[in-house]
Amino acid sequence: MAKPSLFKGLLNRPAGQITMAVILFLALTVLADRFLRGWQLDLTADNLYTLSDGTETLLASLDEPVVLEYYFSRNLAAPYGQLLGYGKRVEDTLRAVVAASDGMVKLSVIDPEPFSEAEDDAVAAGLKGVPMADGSTLYMGLKASNSLDGEAVIPFFTTEREKFLEYDLVKLIAGFNTATKKNLTLLTSLPMQFGPGGAEAMMSGRAQPYVLYEQLSEFFNLQEIAEDFSEIPAETDVLMVVHPPALNDDQLFLIDQYVLKGGRALIFLDPHAEAANPRAYAPSASTLGPLLGAWGVAMPEGKVVGDAALAQRVQMGGLGPDSVKDYVFWLGINHEFMTDDDIVTGSIDNLNFATSGVLEQLDGATTQFQPLVTTSAASMLFDASRAVGMPEPDRLLKDLKPTGISYTLSARVSGPAKTAFSDKAAADAGPVNNPSVSEGDINIVLTADTDIFDDRFWVQLQELLGQRIVVPIAGNGSFILNLAEHIVGSEALLGLRGRGIAKRPFTVVDSLRREAETKYLAEEEALQKQLQNTEMRISELEAQEPEGGAILSTEQEAEIEGFRGQLLETRKALREVNRSLRAEIVGLGKWLAFINIALVPVLIILIVLIRLWLLRRRTAE
Amino acid sequence: MTFHSAVCTILRREFESYFLSPVAYVFLVIFLVLEGLFTFYIGGFYEREQADLMPFFAYQPWLYLFLMPAIGMRLWAEERRSGTFELLLTLPIPLPAVVIGKYLAAIAFAGLALLLTFPIWLTVNWLGDPDNGIIITGYVGSLLMASSYLAIASALSAITKNQVVAFILSVTVCFLFLVSGLPMVLDVFTAWAPEAFVLAVANLSMLSHFDSLQKGVVAFSDILYFALVISLWLWINYVVVETKREAG
Known about the structure:
The complex is a heterodimer of chains A (621) and B (248).
Chain A (H helix, E strand, L loop, with lengths): L1 H11 L1 H22 L4 E3 L10 H8 L5 E7 L1 H4 L3 H20 L4 E6 L6 H9 L3 E3 L5 E10 L4 E4 L10 H10 L7 E7 L9 H6 L7 H9 E5 L13 E5 L6 H12 L3 E5 L22 H4 L2 E2 L4 E5 L3 E5 L8 E11 L8 H4 L3 E5 L5 E2 L6 E7 L4 E5 L9 H7 L8 E11 L3 H6 L11 E9 L11 E6 L2 E6 L3 H12 L6 H4 L9 H37 L10 H67 L1
Parallel strand pairs in A: 2-3, 7-8, 7-9, 9-10, 10-20
Antiparallel strand pairs in A: 2-5, 4-5, 5-6, 11-16, 12-18, 13-14, 14-15, 17-19, 19-20, 21-22
Helix pairs in contact in A: 1-2, 5-7, 17-18
Chain B lengths: L2 H16 L4 H20 L2 H4 L5 H5 L1 H13 L1 H9 L1 H7 L4 H21 L2 H10 L4 H26 L5 H17 L3 H8 L4 H8 L3 H9 L2 E3 H28 L1
């Protein structure tokens, strides 16, 4: 019985008690980290760290079992806190997915140790690893497969997409349900499939499709129809028309009939598509001829909308704070200007539009017109020609006289409509099984901008380990995918896409900046003009220099000198204006810094002084 | 006297004693000024133009590394130096109540300091539309981290009469807890210790547990971690004081 007494003796000594406590502490922290990580309270506004209802619905509806293999080099990641933490978070989310799937998703977590079979499997699956200093490779990727030989991988979980983790996982799993994929027919003149270089880029291997084109291909059986199409594929579930080429009457009639017969369509037109040709000197407009009128909607021709309150700040040549301007044609639209109760826009925080047109309901229209996205009341219509070439942001802002109208940029149009080609409908009866109709209930969504598809307006692209990492900065992709899925009636991922793209700017600073710019713009412009005049006058005088190098007359010299002085004065005044532009914002920053650094300490010092004074008075008494 | 009322008595006595000397005020002023400077000038709070408190919380682990031991160093060392230690232990109050009461007073003081940073919360809400859920969890994490440092400082203050020694020891141990997940610490173990042990040490890092709280997630495992750190050091504190008492 020596052992128990030894143990007892150990526990009676302080050192023994402390040692036991430390061991217990270490054990409990490890166990808590292993088994209790899933228990958490998510206090983020978007519930970023909790599986959404859409995910749970989708997981519960899986009809084929899915096997997930999560490769995570936990030991190699241990010294890198952020990576280890993220790796654990991925594992937790995967476990939550398994729990919500009712046994349809199976998970195995594998630590692919260097030079092991597991590492070979990871490489064979197409996972990418980060090479470490000691020659080993760190993996943090996922392989998913199902019994129908379907296989998909996430090569490496990058922290850049942390906010979209749930979405990426659900998308991967949902991708196996190919049988339920709907058919999307696309008609466009934009280089969506090959990126800005078009087909030439594809030939030289530089093709980089629009991110949205890739995403549409993932969620739909995407079929693109050529510009000279003569029929709309019969199996089309949703027709997407994006900046269409000029269409002839027969082609327009096909679209007319498709829509009137209840076909779902998403139409994106534009008074000027910047993505079509960024260096264009004339607006690149698209139209659907008489169709819009027949649907009870108008899109004013050759007009783009400018909005002073939603203008994005853009870099216009040069560097430094002066080169960043409000550009009223590029709109950063926040949630306030989207219909809150529409499921498509409900989860989206911001959208970026560029040189957008506007939609108006026609008087006496039989269709219903429900705006989805609008401008603020500080907007007005400009000629589209002002958006091409080298637009001057300052001049546009100055010319903008708010009309007080909130223009509609995107709207649902539904209800009874008549054909735009009544003669054609009557004459061309169509095949027996598909006769032409002259009226019907339509269900479409119209949007007056096509630049929302362009990558540069809504995503940041990065390369990591050969992967193209897409980090959305606006909800354009979510908006379009949501529209397409909602209009064909499948909505599982709708709420999930928009989560986590919320930008939280300093609205007070933004409005201060706008006020300052409006205030000083006229002054700056006048000074710029004066500067140009003075410079011109000096060069004129200098050009009058007599031939043969004779000396200028004293009057001329004095005049030049006078103008030079004026030039310096004007430059100084201009600098002053530019400084004033930023002064209020910088001043506010200094005030806030002062309040946060010194206000409470100063109050504390005052309290101490008052207490001391009271104490001294009491002692004196 | 019940355990609860004993704790309250000690807490009140200790908390009031902070404000008997100007040191507490000096501490509050230094803490608030440093916090403001770090947030605005090093963290670039205003220039980032993002309505969140990321720059405010980012430097707190390092700021607390020195400020919390400064609060905690006097808890026991001062009693031992001034000779009130023995007197305190002869009072009809259970020792655990004294340990907890003193510790809670230190937390109350640190909490007050944290509370006085409220202008930054008002500022960020005035400037934009922050996610206040994330800010709340950030503050909870910050208080838990401060409490953990204070538990360490309290225990180490009990082993010496010299406050400076207590301060240096506390800073050292807190530093180890802070950086235990970093390569420079783990490299010491990777060569000889089993992987499970290395992972356990990596898991000790206060930075990673504070990190998820800053993101808006209150994970039970993180809360438990801080609770365990606090319990361990309060236990050590108790054992040390008990030993000193027995030694007379």
